[in-house]
Specification:
Blueprint lengths: L6 H8 L4 H10 L9 H12 L11 H11 L4 E8 L12 E4 L5 E9 L2 E10 H10 L24 E2 L1 E4 L9 E4 L11 H11 L14 E6 L13 E7 L8 E5 L21 E5 L12 E5 L2 E2 L4 E2 L3 E5 L5 E4 L17 H5 L5 E7 L2 E7 L2 E2 L8 E2 L2 E6 L5 E8 L12 E4 L4 E5 L9 E5 H10 L5 E6 L1 E2 L17 E4 L6 E5 L11 E7 L47
Parallel strand pairs: 1-27, 6-10, 22-26
Antiparallel strand pairs: 1-30, 2-3, 3-4, 4-5, 7-8, 8-9, 9-10, 11-12, 12-15, 13-14, 15-16, 17-18, 18-21, 19-20, 21-22, 23-24, 24-25, 25-26, 28-29, 29-30
Helix pairs in contact: 3-4
Length: 562
């Protein structure tokens, strides 16, 4: 009967089926095959995964759908690559890993190295990382002479450094870098805004030809100096040209002049470090934000003696700052009323804030963090998640996190990264950080907030590491103040680099390949466990060791030791 229907009617019916169900039907009903063409699979990738570009590693959109399906709702993964010959050295105090807007390059911004705080931007092609994951390269394998950005078999890859122009951001640790785009649905500021910013910031010097064409924007904000002291409120906008192939990446830095000043923006923004800065696209903002906004939340101030709960926003059209007044007293909380412990439950630093879209509405999910100077011992970590409405910036609820047994909470200085759908991947953080890749379902958090449920708790699951038969299990050491990001939808991988626990800073970079089962990981070998090398000027080591004590180390000043 289905075969007798017109092609148009058949297509309308199949449009309501998920891709995996349609593929099963196609296997037994040949009449479906003419309907399930490339256009149909493009539509499924867009509707089910919000993906609008095909990966270069697959030839058809059907293959792209299969790739995304195997990476969605991952239950396992494999630590598949470990190296310290990547060219970045050791980095701590929140270096920032992020994928470029077209999915061609993985970038690393800043962090605190042996030479102090950095504002450099380095990049490596994602195709090189994917090849490294399959090779399973590790230190000591391959030929040193072959090491380089080419990523040829048997070699370690290296990051290249982007050309930097204009006025770089102020150097600081625990500084945020926020990409002003989302790969879902192509959300980003308009090309007109990018071109106007590039023109304004390039007035003082020459740039590569057609620099603004195809470029995107990033933003840096705040940060602090050694020992968590001397927070600042400096901010910069970068015009990023991603480049590909032989075309190098470039970035132009500066600060656009405000078109107007919002009422009450005097004294803004507040100086802070270890805060969060989240891009909210225009379609999720109230009127008056045609290019979207950046939402600053929390952080520490006054030499880390105060943890903040304030929210401030930067309008990306007018470049003006605004204070958002928030009443936390009546926010539903898993602990009960906030009145008893109001201030301590609100203020936090070292948390993460991830924008998610659920049922065509925007939310910001704030996870973990804590209070107090991690060097003093008088500190605490949070095991909770705040749901903010992205349009009103009102907190809807505070949820407790139900973690797997033996897994520490994502406390201060963990990392969070959006995966596919509504998943948020978490890694590290806290006084005793673990090496567990965790998944928080943002849609479940929003459901609790919408339904005013009495049980304000949400489960967090772990992606259990998989080890091939006959190989030794391997994973990185637990860490905080590191960099980490998920490479989806471009590649089914999670990458982490640098950071610190106790003793030397870490200089290792690890890849974690994601999958639904061991079958998805059959071509992925294990990386080899190794000890992190000491940073410049560092001393001590091991879990009982002390952090380095030198003028260029973020975690100490010359008169304090951990």
């Amino acid at each position: 009967m289905f075969a007798d229907l017109s092609d148009e009617l058949r297509a309308q019916i199949l449009r309501w089926l998920p891709g995996w169900a349609a593929a099963r039907g196609e296997a037994v009903m040949q009449s479906w095959r003419s309907t399930l063409d490339e256009e149909w699979w493009v539509d499924r990738c867009r509707l089910e995964f919000a993906v609008v570009e095909r990966s270069a590693r697959v030839e058809t959109w059907r293959q792209r759908y299969v790739q995304l399906l195997s990476a969605s709702r991952s239950t396992t993964g494999r630590w598949s690559y470990c190296s310290s010959r990547h060219g970045l050295g050791d980095r701590v105090a929140q270096p920032r890993l992020f994928v470029g807007p077209s999915g061609k390059q993985l970038f690393n911004y800043g962090g605190w190295s042996g030479r102090g705080p950095q504002t450099d931007l380095a990049y490596v092609p994602l195709s090189v990382l994917q090849a490294a994951a399959v090779r399973g390269a590790a230190d000591g394998e391959g030929n040193e002479d072959d090491a380089g950005a080419s990523g040829s078999a048997g070699s370690d890859f290296q990051f290249s450094f982007a050309g930097c122009h204009g006025r770089p951001p102020q150097r600081a640790g625990v500084q945020t870098l926020t990409p002003l785009w989302r790969w879902q649905h192509g959300d980003r500021p308009s090309p007109g805004l990018v071109a106007s910013v590039a023109e304004e910031l390039s007035a003082a010097g020459a740039l590569p030809e057609d620099f603004a064409v195809g470029s995107s924007l990033v933003m840096t904000f705040g940060g602090a100096q050694g020992g968590y002291n001397n927070e600042n409120n400096s901010w910069s906008i970068g015009v990023l040209y991603e480049g590909e192939g032989a075309s190098e990446s470039n970035i132009l830095w500066g600060q656009p002049k405000p078109k107007t000043r919002a009422a009450g923006d005097q004294g803004l923004p507040t100086a802070r470090g270890a805060h969060s800065a989240t891009y909210v696209p225009a379609r999720f903002c109230p009127e008056g934000y045609p290019e979207g906004q950046v939402v600053i939340f929390g952080g520490h101030s006054h030499d880390c003696s105060q943890s903040l709960s304030s929210i401030e926003t930067l309008n990306l059209d007018s470049w003006s700052w605004e204070q958002v007044w928030t009443d936390w007293l009546d926010v539903p909380c898993f602990l009960g009323s906030l009145a008893e412990d109001r201030e301590s439950r609100r203020g936090r630093h070292g948390h993460t804030a991830t924008f998610v879209e659920v049922d065509d509405r925007g939310y910001i999910i704030i996870v973990g963090g804590g209070e107090g100077n991690i060097l003093s011992g008088a500190d605490s970590d949070r095991s909770d998640a705040i749901v903010l409405d992205a349009r009103t910036l009102e907190p809807l609820c505070i949820l407790g996190l139900d973690l797997p047994p033996g897994v520490p909470p994502p406390g201060r200085h963990h990392e969070a990264s959006p995966g596919l759908g509504s998943e948020i991947l978490l890694f590290g953080g806290g006084r005793a950080p673990g090496a567990h890749v965790l998944v928080l379902d943002a849609a479940e958090c929003v459901r609790h907030a919408r339904n005013n449920e009495t049980s304000l708790r949400v489960a967090v699951r772990e992606l259990a590491p998989s080890t091939p038969a006959g190989e030794t299990a391997s994973r990185p050491r637990g860490r905080k103040m590191h960099a980490a990001t998920c490479l989806l939808p471009w590649a089914p991988m999670f990458v982490t680099h640098g950071g610190w626990c106790t003793g030397p800073h870490f200089d290792d970079l690890w890849l974690f390949t994601l999958g639904r089962s061991d079958a998805d990981l059959r071509d992925v070998p294990c990386g080899r466990q190794r000890e992190a090398r000491a940073s410049f000027g560092s001393a001590g080591g091991g879990d009982g060791g002390g952090c380095c004590c030198c003028c260029c180390c973020f975690c100490c000043c010359c008169c304090c030791l951990l």
